[in-house]
Every structure is written in structure tokens, then in C-alpha cells.
Amino acid sequence: MSDVVTRLEDLLALLHVAEGFRPILSFLIMLAVVFAVFFGVLWLGVRAGRMSRNTAAFWAFVSPWIVGFLLFTAGPMVYSLILSFMDWDLFDPARFVGLANYQHALHDDRLAQAIKVTLVYSVVSIPLQTVLSLAVALLMNVNVRGINVFRTIWYLPSLVTGVAQTVLFIYVFNPDFGLVNGALRLIGIEGPQWLFDPDWALPAVVIMSLWTVGGNMVIYLAGLRDIPAELYEAAEIDGAGRWRTLWNITLPQISPVIFFNVVTGMIGAMQTFTQGYVLTHNEGGLGDSLLFYVFYLYQNAFSLFKIGYASALAWILFVMIMMLTALMFRGSAFWVYYESQRPSRRRRRARVS
């Protein structure tokens, strides 16, 4: 592949193309050749009667996604899997080392710390986000004048994420003039050092994660609006109170939505990076208190140039997320209610699980 790219760049040089444009033009030429071959195969298939025009049209329309998936998702994944068995520093030729990178991970104390920080953050932040976003959705699920304004206000913070959110909370949690400690002083409490203290840095990041509950709130609100009104009318006739209605009607009806948000929240929490990167580089003395897994992977790849070991860490994280997701799907049989699923079948599924 590198020889093909080199020859294309040499050809473009003969055509007096600027040096900065040669790599991207080489890529576009190879991409055009791939599509030309693909469409040529489809045309021959239609001419030979081996596929209908509708089938050929389907593959033609999905071809950009297929090519993009192979080039930018599947290809890099396979390449990283190969690199996980290599010792490579980006400069010297890669050297095959077998399972050495995975064996090193078993004895890496900093990796154990990264897994601990990431799991603690996930276990604490996900339930808090779930409860708060669901509570806000229940409050916003009313038909009163101006309710859309409040829904918008709750959703807007979720648009400020990543580095901007982290920098904002550096000032919010500032121990001297931050809003949090300022509010605590009003009631006679001297707040902690927060992001300047290794013991309080992770709790502060957990609190930061509640900033974006507005996104999940919108999803919960859509699920609440989809619950049939007849169920609440029947519960009111039977004399059920608000808490029993919430427990026996609302929560079972939106349990698939809760399950979706919990799974996606877990996957996102396991890939937390920005908070650890920004805060560790801006606040001194935190040590490894914010050493999230992906942040440690980044350090190995782009600070220590251990590309092979970083690739192995990426695949270990992939397996961890897959296992946690599988466990959550396994446990969902006991509490997730699907309206199209008959109760007898659901109970049988739970017993089998």
C-alpha cells in the first residue's frame, strides 16, 4: 500500500501538484478507484442477470457507508489488534512480541489504578445521573404555561461538554473564589480543596458529570409522554397513590428507556478522558487520582510512544465494556418490561437466566 501511495505522489509531483495536497489527492484517487471497481461489479452483475436493479441500487446507496466503515472503523480496529502483538515506538520498525503486552498489563500497577478510578467513577456517576435525569423528567412532564422554557434551560448545559465544561468547573470548584465553596461559606461551612486535593478530585468530577443530565432528561421525557393515559386513569379509579403509580406503572413502562440510558452511560463513563487530561495538566499535585483508563492509554501511546502496549490496552478496554454490557443485558430480564412481550414469557426468561 505504501508503494502505491508513493507512486501516486510521484505522479502528482510530475503534474506540478503542490506537495501539501499530494497525500489527500492520492487518497481520493484510491477511493475513486475502489468505487469504480465496486460499481463496475454491480453493473456486470445486473448485465449478467445475477442481481436485480433494485438490489444493485441498494448496494450502490449503502456503498459510502460500507467503504467508510471499512476504512475508518473496521480497518483501524484490525490494525490495532495486530499492533497489540507488536513493540513499536512510531520511529523504529515494529517488532513482534506475541502476548508480551498483555502479560505486562497483568503486572502494571498504574493500569490497576486506572481501572479502579474508572470503575469507581462509573459506579457512582451512572446511578446519580439516572436518578437525577429521571426526577427532572418527571417534573418536566406536566402541561403548564412556560414548561418548554424550563425544559430548554435544563437541556442547554448538555451542549457545553468536553474541555469547555472542564475549564468552567475549574472555576466553579476553585477553593478560594469558586461558586461551590462560596455557597458553603454562606452557611458556615469551609469547603474542601476540590480539584486541588487528590482525595476530592474524583468526587468533584462525579459532580461535574451531573452537568449533562439534560440530554437523558429529554429521552426520559419522550418515554414518559409515550405511556398510555388509560393506565393512569385505571390506577386512579383503583385508588392508587402517586408512589404506587410511579412504582407499578411509570417505572415499568419506561424501563427500556432506563436500560438504554444506563448502558450508553456505562459505555461513555468507561471511556472518560477529557476531565483527567485537562485537570491533571492544569492542577498540580493530583497524582493518579484522576488516572482514567483512556487517559492512561493516551499517555502510553502519545507520551511514552508505546503504541503496541496502548493497542493492547484498547482491546482490554473493549473486552471489559463487552463483558459489562453482556452482564447488563443478562440482568435486564429481571426488571426491563417490553410491552410486546407476554408476562409468562418474561417470567420464563428470568427463570432461565
Helices and strands in order, then pairings?
Elements (H helix, E strand, L loop, with lengths): L1 H13 L7 H26 L5 H31 L2 E2 L7 E2 L3 H7 L2 H32 L6 H9 L6 H11 L6 H8 L11 H12 L3 H13 L3 H9 L4 H12 L1 H16 L3 H9 L10 H10 L4 H25 L11 H10 L1
Antiparallel strand pairs: 1-2
Helix pairs in contact: 1-2, 2-3, 3-16, 4-16, 5-9, 5-10, 5-13, 5-15, 7-14, 13-16, 15-16
Describe the structure.
The chain is an all-alpha fold and 353 residues long. The protein has 2 domains: 2-83, no CATH class; 105-352, Orthogonal Bundle (MetI-like fold). The protein has 17 helices and 2 strands. A two-stranded antiparallel ribbon has the order 1-2. A hairpin with a 7-residue loop joins strand 1 (86-87) and strand 2 (95-96). It starts with a helix and ends with a helix. The mean pLDDT is 89.
Which short descriptors sum up this protein?
two-stranded antiparallel ribbon; mainly alpha; globular; MetI-like fold; single chain; 353 residues
Give a quick summary of the entry.
The protein is 72% helix and 1% strand. With 353 residues, the protein is mainly alpha-helical. It folds into 2 domains: 2-83, no CATH class; 105-352, Orthogonal Bundle (MetI-like fold), CATH 1.10.3720.
Q: CA-to-CA gap between the ends?
A: 49 Å
From the spread of the alpha carbons, the general shape counts as globular
Kindly report the spatial arrangement of strands forming the biggest sheet: 1-2
> Structurally, how many domains make up the residues?
2
CATH class category name of the largest domain: Mainly Alpha
Q: Segments where pLDDT lies below 50 for 5+ residues?
A: none
Mean pLDDT: 89
**CATH-assigned fold name of the largest domain:** MetI-like fold
**SS elements, strand count:** 2
CATH homologous superfamily grouping of the largest domain = MetI-like
CA-atom Rg in angstroms: 27 Å
Give the helix level as a range of percent: over 70%
Q: Estimate what percentage of residues fall within beta strands.
A: under 5%
SSE string, helix = H, strand = E?
HHHEEHHHHHHHHHHHHHH
Continuous helix count: 17
Q: Major sheet, described briefly?
A: 2 strands, antiparallel
Q: Return the CATH architecture of the largest domain.
A: Orthogonal Bundle
What structural class should be given to the helix and strand makeup? mainly alpha
